[in-house]
Amino acid sequence: MVPILLTVNNRGFYSDDFYYLSRAAHHDISYSFNDSLRMTGGMRPLGHLLAALQYELLGANSLSHQLWMATLHFFSAFCVFLFIRSFFRHWFIGLFASATFAVIPWHLQTIFWPICDMNIVSSSLILLSAWLFLGYVRDCDHKVRCFVLSLFCYVLAILFHEQSLSWLVVWPLLAWAADERKNFRQSLLCSWHYILSAVLLGGFLVIFSTGTQPQSQPDTGLVHIVTSSIMLLGKTLKIHIYLTLAGLRSYHLPVLKEWWHIDIWKIFTLFFAIIVVWIIFVKNVWRDRISMYVPEHFWRCILMGGVMFIAPIGILALAASPYVEHRHQYFTSIGFVFILSCGCYGILPKLTGNLSRALFTILICSIITVFAVCTATRSQEWVESWRIQKNVITSLQHLIPFPPERTIIIIDDFPPKIGFSAYTYGNESCLLTFVSKAYNRKDLRAHSRFWIDEENGKKFAGIGTHYTTDEVGDRPILFFRYIPGKKKLVQETEYSYRTRHTGFQD
Fold it and tell me: Contact 332/226 with Cβ under 8 angstroms?
């Protein structure tokens, strides 16, 4: 097997990178922290070490990794919920606020990416919301102690390049600050059901929302239908939240020519559902009349599940253009979420005290949070990329059905918004790489693209992303260009490829 040298840069590991790491797992991988220390100045080597250990222990896109990430994201949303809840007496207002603010750190990535590190920004926002919530504690000395601990968590977040470790301390800290008894041990014991419910419910939903990669073999089982449907439903909701909050795409692509994605009637439907719930629960309109015919818990569950989630999300899902072929899966996912909401809300009222409300709130926050953050960004472009790449692979199979072993196949000049990806082609030793036009600028060379450099007489080529480099040696390289107008591939020489990318060669 050809060894692959894994290097990391100053932005650390992201969830999308685990896919490329899993693709590189077919080869012998060696971790190199020298480049990470050089590029970060030795400031955050622990973050890279933690990411490498997390990959080794949890695996790429494993259920345990998804469960871990979902739990952390849920803490972020629930913290915002507690903060908003301190302003408004009605708890469901905090749910809408948490659903909106849960995606803000990822939305800010499009703005602050050229300026600072994204993980530091998200950690700052999370801990800032925690500090604002702690500001309502009456005891000044108590607030000072909480602020010192939060600042310590923030330093840990910067050091580890991740907000995960900080939440292990911030969450009991919030429970301590919210408790009138001001006893950290007692508050921690009283908040165990929050943490346990978040892990169980959030993990349960994430397990059912982790689908397979599109290039893998399809599964016709019931589990696959449920997983892929919820995954697509989450992508649809997330992309519309992104487009509604700002007019930006990931990687700073303006969306001025793509406002057709935001239909006014979709947004109107969502706000109409919010108004209906507000009227019923706040103004108590029709509440007594409806309760005459239907049991209270049942009709409240129907309204909460149907008006808040089923109707708006279902309409958004069915109207999303890239997913027309998956409409049957949307009906499956809508029914699954509806049954889950009805079942849990029918059982939880039997519990007494604040635990019932807390568990139900955690359930709703888990559903909203998983829908918002468990899927990859730029989902519409991802589906479009998959379709075009599938057609390209079909055309490539006619041109070179049996490539030589260890061949590197480069398909250049892909559409700008399609992105960058790599696959194994023919057999495990052959690599198929797509290069986007969006990276054909000199200042973007450090981002994902394929390049060929010569160093000390040896030829190297980027594999998948700029984190991995593979010594080409005597491996044959085939160059193709994708012509969007004709939707076909044209084979070219290495000389023409180098000539076109002269500005990128060292």
Answer: yes
Q: What is the mean pLDDT of residues 258-266?
A: 39
Is 0.70 topped by the overall pTM?
Answer: no
Query: Looking at this protein, which amino acid is placed at residue 452?
Result: I
pLDDT above 50: residue 491: yes
Question: What angle in degrees, to the nearest 10, is found between the helix axes of 311-319 and 327-347?
Answer: 170
DSSP secondary structure of 296-357: HHHHHHHHHHIIIIIHHHHHHHHH-GGGGGGHHHHHHHHHHHHHHHHHHHHHGGGS-THHHH
**Distance between terminal CA atoms of the chain?**
28
Determine the Cα–Cα distance for residues 212 and 162; give it in Å rounded to an integer. 26
What string of H, E and C letters represents the secondary structure of 441-498? CHHHCCCCCCCEEEECCEEEEEECEEEEEEECCCCCEEEEEEECCCCEEEEECHHHHH
Tokens (6 digits) for 255: 């969306």
- Give CA angle at 136 (131, 138), nearest 5°: 120
Q: Quick one: pLDDT at residue 331?
A: 41
Q: In what order do the strands lie in the sheet with 458-463?
A: 29-31, 4-6, 465-471, 458-463, 452-455
User: Would you say 437 and 395 are in contact if contact means Cβ atoms under 8 Å apart?
Assistant: no
270 CB-near residues (< 8 Å, 6+ apart): 312, 316
Which pairing describes strands 488-492 and 408-414: parallel, antiparallel, or unpaired? unpaired
Tokens in use for 443? Answer: 């200042």
